[in-house]
From TrEMBL:
Binding, substrate: 57-59, 100, 207, 258-259
Keyword Ribosomal protein: no
Family: Belongs to the EIF-2B alpha/beta/delta subunits family. MtnA subfamily.
Keywords: Amino-acid biosynthesis, Isomerase, Methionine biosynthesis
Site positions per UniProt: Transition state stabilizer: 168
Protein name: Methylthioribose-1-phosphate isomerase
């Protein structure tokens, strides 16, 4: 298993996506923090299943896993069809694209891999593997840069110091490594600029209670877990100065799709003069989607909501509405932090300028 050199004094990052022994190895996030189980995947349909079933989750991590999935798809297509591999790979690309609908990083990574399909008749695998690894390394570099930009902004804001609140898991597990919103938290903590992080538990998959809590404990960052429904009361009490979240897709007008509950956090933050920061690489910005209303929101079905830890605490056959993302209007976002820079009023013009820079 490879690890990255430490470059900035911050702790080296957990990596949950590793290419090793010519295959894709994924840390099974469904089993954390209880057990660290690595799954070995050697074809693209298995990668698509792992994305759909939440073995790997978080927008940038989904894109990176899909990029390695294309490497496995190209291997199979070249083995079966030789120089005609470009046609033979299409069904696998379709399967990967359909794995989850909301995080645009999936389509972004597939498009980037496809753009590297060369006209040569030779084996495409080595070149595609190089690109998938580059996508992962670029994501880690983007996260570290966004961590510094987001921390700078908070350090210079009147609402600095004290505690921050984060939602879902946006850390090393959700990315190539280091994290988006959690990367800002890590950087702030490294600078002694925050005292405490409040992590929402994030029903129904408990990404906060299981994954963010696990990452924060490893870095020894003081953290307190809250029920999702406690967030507004916490903000009303003061003490939390910034809510920091990631994104699954940012539309051309700056609307942000992220884990269900993000919109309620943004409303509560605005009401209580708490800063609301979205941290996302430009691979999460989808200029082809005009507004949040056009973003497909994944509904994972009733079963995941009606059960809790394998048990059914309530009525098993009750209808349940289970959208796993929501849309926060751009006007509620105080800062959109990307690796290309920070937008403090993320509207269509600002996003267009950023993407052209
Ligand atoms: C850097 S991760 C940003 C988002 O992907 C994250 O906040 C999120 O909503 C993850 O949802 P998940 O359903 O766990 O894939």
């Amino acid at each position: 298993m490879s690890s990255l050199p430490q470059t900035d004094g911050l702790p080296d990052t957990i990596r949950a996506i590793v290419w090793d022994d010519d295959r894709l190895q994924l840390l099974d996030q469904r089993q954390l923090p209880g057990q660290s189980v690595w799954l070995t995947l050697d074809d693209a349909p298995a990668v698509a299943r792992a994305i759909h079933d939440m073995v790997v989750r978080g927008a940038p991590a989904i894109g990176i896993a899909a990029a390695y999935g294309v490497v496995l798809a190209a291997r199979a297509a070249y083995r079966d069809a030789g120089p005609d591999w470009r046609a033979a790979i299409e069904p696998d690309l379709t399967t990967l694209a359909a794995a989850r609908p909301t995080a645009i990083n999936l389509n972004w990574a597939l498009a980037r891999m496809r753009a590297a399909f060369t006209a040569s008749d030779g084996d495409p695998e080595p070149q595609l593997l190089q690109l998938a690894a580059a996508i992962q390394h670029e994501d880690i570099a983007a996260n570290r840069h966004m961590g510094a930009l987001g921390a700078d902004l908070i350090d210079h804001d009147r609402r600095n110091g004290g505690a921050v609140l984060t939602h879902c898991n946006t850390g090393s597990l959700a990315t190539g490594g280091f994290g988006t919103a959690l990367g800002v938290v890590r950087t702030l903590y490294g600078r002694n600029s925050i005292e405490r992080v409040y992590a929402t538990e994030t029903r129904p998959w408990l990404q906060g209670a299981r994954l963010t809590a696990w990452e924060l404990q490893q870095d020894r960052i003081p953290a307190t877990l809250i029920a999702d429904s406690a967030a507004a009361a916490l903000l009303a009490q003061g003490g939390v100065h910034w809510v920091i979240v990631g994104a699954d897709r940012v539309a051309a007008n700056g609307d942000v799709a992220n884990k269900i509950g993000t919109y309620a956090l943004a409303l509560a933050a605005r009401r209580h003069d708490v800063g609301f920061m979205v941290v996302a690489p430009t691979s999460t910005i989808d200029t082809a989607t005009a507004s949040g209303a056009d973003i497909p929101i994944e509904d994972r079905g009733a079963a995941e909501l009606l059960s809790y830890g394998g048990h059914t605490p309530g009525v098993a056959d009750m209808p349940a509405w289970n959208p796993v993302f929501d849309v926060t209007p751009a006007e509620l976002v105080d800062a959109l932090v990307t690796e290309k820079g920070v937008l403090t009023a993320p509207d269509s013009a600002a996003i267009d300028g950023l993407m052209r820079a």
